[in-house]
Write a structure and sequence with these properties.
Helix 5 crosses helix 6. The strands form 3 sheets. Strands 4, 14, 15, 16, 17, 18, 19, 20 and 21 form a 9-stranded mixed β-sheet that branches. Strands 5-6-7-8-9-11-12-13 form an 8-stranded parallel beta barrel, surrounded by 5 helices. The chain has a 3-stranded antiparallel β-sheet with strand order 1-2-3. Helix content is about 30%, strand content about 25%. The chain has 12 helices and 21 strands. The radius of gyration is 23 Å and the shape is globular. The mean pLDDT is about 95. Bound molecules: pyridoxal-5'-phosphate. Pyridoxal-5'-phosphate binds next to helix 10.
């Protein structure tokens, strides 16, 4: 369902009060439209809840998952609110820095960090590496040694809990490529503790994405806590615990847990545990939310090009395609499609498809819409894992992005031209 930031005023769908018709007229389509207020509200749902429950000596850090939406303007909005960042590549670190945000609030996840990426992260004094294998630990120690510095690390531990989400976005089961196995984690920490250029600061997990229930996250927390206790008994004290991201959003009829409720339940466990076993010595909570901050803060605006009918179906061919929004083709994901101008005419049932030469190029299926050529459609909840996954397949320039900020519309990424797309290419002499 649409969020309150994208709602009808009369018959016209608006972004924070600005008619999407006017935005399309100025910036053309396909176009990503984000709401600054929605981003802010979603971030504050986490930050305010943490402020309410956290120990004053160990304030929580919300590390926005850059891979969900990495536009510099989005990062800057969140950074200015106090957000840290969870990155999965050196490129994402370069974005955080280019946006003017603080690299010392960056945590670096990912199974394949290269030597170059590790060096770049150490040069920028990032908060922590989430280490995903013993081999990576050795590499980080070696590089930190060459640079005469120490690297702060946490292990990403695989708690082996089932997040009950789509298999492609489930990451915390033992057969996944992510993290170190729960049974091996203790030895990994002991190895790390003996390394000269490593400082152990925390423990991390991230079990999956689009989780509707927080029970698997709380279970993962409990498993990690038992490991923290074992490490403490061994003289290895951790300063932070990172429970990852993964809270889902409403694409269709899903009812995800409310963020404040999740945070309250998490802190109830943390507080009790720290009181019982650590004489109330606090531990800092880190979180890595992506989709639950950026997902419903954006839409993809597209124009109907042609209506067409074959023996089986009606099609609405639009100017956005799977290269702009890959989630339907990749996961058969549902995105709500709303007409930007409500029509009085009778609705028919359409598959919404793009112009790309693939049968997988569909954005929505079997939707009842009253539309004709030239009408605008809003594909809802396209703020996360949408533009960041865009490609140039079929030599389609990636769509422009705008942010609506209290009635003002700002272009935050211009549309790519064909010349942009082949600028790095050359014909033979
Ligand atoms: C993708 C990812 C996240 C964010 O997940 P969401 O489901 O968008 O909240 C957090 N941490 C890591 C390590 C990730 O890979």
């Amino acid at each position: 369902m649409p969020t309150t930031h994208f709602s009808y005023e009369g018959n016209i769908l608006c972004a924070d009060g600005v008619p999407l018709t006017a935005i399309a007229q100025q910036y053309s389509t396909p176009l990503y439209v984000y709401s600054r207020n929605a981003l802010t509200e979603n971030y504050l749902a986490y930050a305010d809840a943490c402020k309410k429950h956290q120990h004053p000596d160990a304030p929580a850090l919300i590390c926005f998952s850059v891979k969900s939406n990495s536009n510099l303007a989005v990062l800057k909005i969140l950074g200015d609110l106090g957000s840290g960042f969870d990155i999965v590549s050196g490129g994402e670190l370069a974005r955080v820095i280019a946006a003017g945000c603080d690299p010392r609030k960056v945590i670096f996840s990912g199974v394949g960090k290269t030597a170059e990426e590790i060096r770049f992260a150490l040069e920028n004094d990032i908060l922590c590496f989430n280490v995903e294998s013993p081999a990576e630990l050795h590499r980080i120690n070696d590089i930190a040694g060459q640079m005469a510095t120490t690297a702060r690390i946490a292990f990403r531990v695989n708690p082996d809990v089932d997040p009950k989400t789509h298999p492609y976005i489930s990451t915390g089961l033992k057969e996944n490529k992510f993290g170190v196995a729960f049974e091996e984690a203790f030895d990994c920490y002991k190895t790390a503790a003996a390394m000269p250029n490593i400082t152990i600061t925390g423990i991390d997990c991230h079990i999956g994405s689009q989780l509707l229930d927080d029970a698997p996250l709380l279970e993962a927390f409990d498993r990690l806590a038992t490991l923290v206790d074992r490490l403490e008994a061994e003289g290895i004290t951790l300063q932070h615990m990172d429970i990852g991201g993964g809270i889902g959003i409403t694409y269709h009829e899903e009812q995800p847990v409310a963020i404040p409720d999740y945070i309250a339940r998490l802190y109830a466990r943390i507080s009790q545990w720290r009181k019982d076993r650590y004489n109330d010595r606090p531990i800092r909570l880190l979180l890595e939310p992506g989709r639950s901050i950026s997902g419903n803060a954006g839409i993809l605006l597209t124009e109907v090009q042609y209506l067409k009918t074959n023996a089986a179906k009606n099609y609405a061919v639009v100017d956005a395609a799977m290269n702009d929004l890959m989630r339907p083709a990749l996961y058969e994901a549902w995105h709500t499609v709303l007409p930007v101008e409500k029509q009085d005419s009778a609705a028919a049932t359409y598959d919404i498809v793009g112009p790309i030469c693939e049968s997988g190029d569909w954005l929505a299926r079997q939707r009842d819409l009253a539309i004709e050529s030239g009408n605008l459609l809003a594909i809802m909840c396209a703020g996360a894992y949408s533009m960041v996954m865009a490609s140039n397949y079929n030599t389609r320039g990636r769509a422009a992005e705008v942010i609506v900020d209290n009635g003002q519309v700002h272009l935050v990424r211009r549309r790519e031209t064909p010349e942009d797309l082949f600028a790095f290419e050359k014909v033979l002499p």
